[in-house]
Amino acid sequence: MTLTQPIPQGAVDIFANNLSGRCQTHVLKSWTMFFGDILNGTRTSDIRYTGDRRFLVGDHMDLREWDPIKNEYTGRSQLVEITYIQQNKSNPCAISHDAIRDDHAVLSIKLINPGA
Fold first, then answer.
1. Where exactly are the structural domains of the chain?
2. Rounded distance, CA 94 to CA 25, Å?
3. How far apart (Å, rounded) are the C-alpha atoms in residues 37 and 93?
4. Which one, of 53, 65, 71, 64, lies nearest residue 107 by Cα?
5. CA-based diameter of the chain, in Å?
6. Of the candidates 86, 79, 92, which has an alpha carbon nearest to the alpha carbon of residue 105?
7. Which of 5, 17, 108, 113 could pair covalently with 84 via S-S, beta carbons 3.0-4.6 A apart?
């Protein structure tokens, strides 16, 4: 039994930093129940729908806090960098293919200029 497997087609796009040097900034809502934990650094991942955009390692997300009860933005925001992407179509989950939907990804993130 071998522990190494070929890299799935498309995986290079996800794991490689943007070789062109042009990272994209995605402006996204972040619900209040998740935003606080991202802001204080205890939540270092975010699950996102990937059917309408292409995330790459090195991209930034401008997270805008959204209150789903009041149906409005709170005015707080935080810039984060995508450091790793777990997605079935290019990097299958070792636990189960069903653990992550094909049109979603778990994005590992780190704060950019926290507290600024």
1. 11-111
2. 29
3. 25
4. 53
5. 54
6. 86
7. 108
Beta bridge partners of 28: 63
**CA–CA dist 34, 44 (Å, integer):** 10
As a CATH number, domain 11-111 is: 2.30.130.30
CA–CA distance, 93 with 12 (Å, rounded to integer): 16
In sequence order, the β-bridge partners of residue 89 are: none
- pTM of the predicted structure, to 2 decimals: 0.76
Number of Cβ within a 10 Å radius of residue 99:
12
Nearest to 89 by CA among 45, 44, 55: 55
Check if the beta carbon of residue 73 is closer than 8 Å to that of residue 40: no
Joined together, the tokens standing for residue 59 give: 């991209």
Q: Distances from the Cα of 94 to the Cαs of 15, 43, 86, 97, 100, in angstroms?
A: 17, 22, 10, 8, 11
